[in-house]
Write a structure and sequence with these properties.
- The chain is α+β, with helices and mostly antiparallel strands.
- It folds into two domains: 6-156, Ribosomal Protein S5, domain 2 (2-Layer Sandwich); 164-280, Alpha-Beta Plaits.
- Helix content is 30%, strand content 28%.
- Strand 3, helix 1 and strand 4 (84-89) form a beta-alpha-beta unit.
- The longest helix has 16 residues, at 100-115.
- The protein is globular.
Length: 284
């Protein structure tokens, strides 16, 4: 175990598209999604300690936090005798469709692997991550990946350039479980997209012409039905100069893609009363 502290950043994500292909026999949903990390971060700091302790202002019991659960999983799975004081500082809002909890869990796995000198492989960490949540393995890979299955099948892509984003979230949260359950009640289901290769290539090269009109989020359908303000945010982002706007994940955060960071910063001023953040996509 290290005798000094270690600090890691846990990045949020956006979904460039999300196809929900139906419920699987194991109860999970079959999906296709292109997911990219963005420059909005939580921070995890690991400090030597005899016991396993989580310090955070997240308003849930520590034993329910994915960071703590990830640490307990590693300790039990690999018979780790050391402890750690883990400080989690949150910037990514919870229940926002930005993957904050999953990113934190992945950072906990990667951080403790280094902090406890475990020398686990990426495959070992991903197998552990799958036990905690479907979105977590993505965060153990590069900046951009095509994800399928229930989230465990990951095809890394190569993001060559960054794009400027404005994130806008209303005051309420949306449960991922609620979104998928309500999608399952729809009679109209998604189908596999025919232009996935085109979309991936456009995102890799940050070519805006190739994404406009080609991207959609199946969960947006059910979430907007219950929370029409999301549709209003999408439309307002376009009026404020976004080239494209879409709800991320199960929402309710909507992201707008802008031609520059300065344009995104200007547009943020039009969303008083909402949580907003200007960020960029992460390139490799």
């Amino acid at each position: 175990m290290r005798d000094s502290s270690l600090s890691l950043k846990a990045p949020a994500k956006i979904n460039w598209f999300l196809n929900v292909l139906g419920r699987r026999d194991d109860g999970f949903h079959e999906i296709q999604s292109l997911i990219q990390k963005i420059t909005l971060y939580d921070t995890l700091t690991f400090t030597p300690a005899e016991d396993l302790i989580l310090q955070t202002d997240v308003p849930i019991p520590a034993e329910e936090n994915l960071v703590y659960r990830a640490a307990v999983l590693l300790k039990n799975r690999y018979s780790v005798r050391a402890g750690a004081l883990i400080r989690l500082d949150k910037n990514i809002p919870a229940g926002a469709g930005l993957g904050g909890g999953s990113a934190d869990a992945a950072a906990a796995l990667a951080g403790l692997n280094e902090f406890w000198s475990m020398n686990l492989s990426a495959e070992d960490l991903c197998r552990a991550a799958e036990q905690l949540g479907s979105d977590i393995p993505f965060f153990l890979h590069g900046s951009l990946s095509f994800v399928s299955g229930r989230g465990e099948n990951i095809l890394p892509c190569k993001a060559e350039k960054t794009l400027a984003l404005l994130l806008v979230k209303p005051s309420f949260d949306v449960s991922t479980a609620w979104a998928y359950e309500n999608f399952s009640k729809l009679t109209k289901k998604s189908r596999k997209s025919d232009n996935i290769r085109l979309i991936i290539r456009s995102i890799e090269k940050a070519e805006l012409d190739g994404i406009t009109g080609n991207l959609s989020n199946d969960l947006e359908t059910v979430t907007v039905e219950s929370f029409p303000v999301i549709a209003g945010i999408k439309e307002k982002l376009l009026r404020e100069g976004a080239v494209f706007s879409l709800m991320s994940g199960s929402g309710p955060t909507v992201f707008g893609v802008f031609e520059s960071r300065s344009r995104a910063e200007e547009a943020a001023g039009a969303f008083d009363g909402f949580w907003t953040a200007v960020a960029e996509t992460v390139a490799d």
